[in-house]
Amino acid sequence: MPDSTSEDKMADAVLEVYDPPAGNQEISQNPKVSLHLQFRPSELSLTKEVAWVRHNARSAARASVPEFTGSKPRVLSMSVVFDEKDHKGQSVDQRVGLLLSCCVPTSDSLDRDQPSPPLVKFRWGTFASVSFLSFVRSAHARYTRFSTGGEPLRAVCEITLEEIGTTTKGQNPTSGSPSSRQSCVLVRGDSLQSVAVRNTGRASDWRAIAELNDIDDPSKVAPGRVLLLPDASPA
Asked: According to CATH, what is the number of the domain 166-235?
């Protein structure tokens, strides 16, 4: 006979919120705040794609051999429900507000002239493949129940998270140094030129950043990507 308390023993689903790193600092291991989901998602959608390029080959009998150009980030989508007050006494409006705040730059990052929204990580027990550092690509709240005073009592939120890329230590194509390279997270509005200016003071160093990160088209580098930075040596 199944255990009638098995549902109560299920791990809670949590959305952890982290401050964006300052400059070239590493991302904190401790979340700034955690958003506990009262109702665990009934369904999760996880997408992972790879990029291939197929070059024209007039001599190929059927088709040219595709060239692997890299892995694309994981994308996690879910629908969650916020209902009345949670165990911390937070209202539906407060929790939706916290979720939406993950889509705008933090005040500290604006003060540093490096605007970036918070980073997030979804955790649910031992479910490892859906737990990765990411940013909120989109958040949509639909309010379905209200008090007589107009306070929202229930909200259904559609959330899409996109993975933040990782870097490999010792990735130095010129010296092969085993030490870890400095890195930064590309935020919306950034360009390789602006990153170069912050790193070395020279916009022309964007080419070194592109080469170090195997970037063929600088205009297609998406926000959220972690970029390795070249040494800020004098010209």
From this structure: 3.10.350.10
